[in-house]
């Protein structure tokens, strides 16, 4: 009888140890599907997101090569892959990302209002936007260009709009829309604005406008999908450094993202993200841009 009691106690102890091991939530143990508990400063955005094991990210849903909804129903592209690199460093599994569509005109709003935790959406860093939000990065430098119909020989660059006869399309709230205003003769009659570049592309194809202007890499994405219809007209005429948008005063989060970007430059994950997405359209990646730790 005594031997049976000893055996029972030993078995119970073994079971308890086994359960404790299974329930261990140490820093190296997953907190979910692909999640990882990490140590971050108390009260930081990084700590909050890691504990929640969830994150909301704003991106474009209509940008070939950068952020475009695929057959999976989720966005795909370089911006998306860069965001995933940041999410991995936070210890959050990819399936816990909630992707929120963030067209140009609402990008600052969704950050300020807390709708998303960050925005990665072909987001040019500039001083006007810094009045409302902050940027980590840049992680890529694009340049504004013009897309026209394949058989168009009349438009060769931004100066082609100076005669006041040609219409050009861009997106409300975008840097290209503001830049092209410097080159048209009459903004009211020549500049056509939509909320997405897909609508600009359709307007060009349908003959409602003569050109579309935005960053070269976005246009190259459209051209790659329909080379028989479109081409670029001339060379890039601006520099557009893309950054990750976060809340204005969240310096710690911005520094964390900058550290993550620099790590991605050195470990090859940044280049792989490009090669797997926008790099397929023929655009050049170039050297990693220096992050701006302002």
TrEMBL record:
PROSITE patterns: PROKAR_LIPOPROTEIN (PS51257), SBP_BACTERIAL_3 (PS01039)
Residues of the signal peptide: 1-21
Family matches, as Pfam families: SBP_bac_3
Highest taxon of the lineage: Bacteria
Record's keyword terms, sorted: Signal, Transport
Record SUPFAM superfamilies: Periplasmic binding protein-like II
InterPro entries: Bact_solute-bind_prot3, SBP_3_CS, Solute-binding_3/MltF_N
Coiled coil ranges: none
The keyword DNA damage is assigned to this record: no
Domain Solute-binding protein family 3/N-terminal: residue ranges: 54-281
CDD domains for the chain: PBP2_GluB
Keyword Signal: yes
Stated family: Belongs to the bacterial solute-binding protein 3 family.
Protein name as annotated: Glutamate ABC transporter substrate-binding protein
Organism: Micromonospora azadirachtae
Lineage, opening ranks: Bacteria, Bacillati, Actinomycetota, Actinomycetes, Micromonosporales
């Amino acid at each position: 009888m005594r031997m049976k009691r000893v055996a029972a106690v030993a078995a119970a102890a073994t079971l308890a140890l086994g359960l404790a091991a299974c329930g261990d939530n140490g820093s190296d143990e997953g907190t979910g599907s692909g999640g990882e508990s990490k140590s971050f400063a108390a009260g930081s955005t990084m700590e909050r997101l890691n504990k929640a094991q969830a994150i909301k990210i704003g991106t474009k849903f209509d940008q070939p090569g950068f952020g475009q909804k695929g057959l999976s129903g989720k966005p795909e592209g370089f911006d998306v892959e860069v965001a995933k690199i940041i999410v991995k460093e936070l210890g959050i599994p990819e399936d816990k990302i909630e992707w929120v569509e963030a067209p140009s005109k609402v990008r600052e709003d969704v950050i300020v209002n807390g709708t998303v935790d960050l925005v990665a959406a072909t987001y040019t860093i500039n001083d006007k936007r810094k009045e409302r939000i902050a940027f980590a990065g840049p992680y890529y430098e694009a340049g504004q260009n013009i897309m026209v119909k394949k058989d168009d020989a009349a438009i060769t660059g931004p100066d082609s709009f100076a005669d006041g006869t040609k219409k050009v399309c861009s997106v409300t709230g975008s840097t290209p829309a503001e830049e092209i205003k410097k080159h048209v003769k009459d903004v009211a009659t020549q500049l056509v604005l939509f909320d997405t570049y897909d609508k600009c592309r359709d307007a060009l194809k349908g003959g409602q406008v003569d050109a579309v202007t935005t960053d070269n890499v976005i246009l190259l994405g459209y051209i790659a999908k329909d080379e028989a219809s479109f081409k670029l007209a001339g060379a890039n005429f601006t520099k557009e450094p893309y950054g990750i948008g976060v809340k204005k005063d969240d310096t710690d989060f911005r520094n964390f993202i900058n550290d993550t970007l620099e790590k991605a430059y050195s470990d090859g994950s940044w280049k792989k993200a490009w090669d797997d997405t926008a790099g397929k359209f023929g655009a050049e990646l170039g050297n990693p841009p220096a992050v701006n730790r302002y």
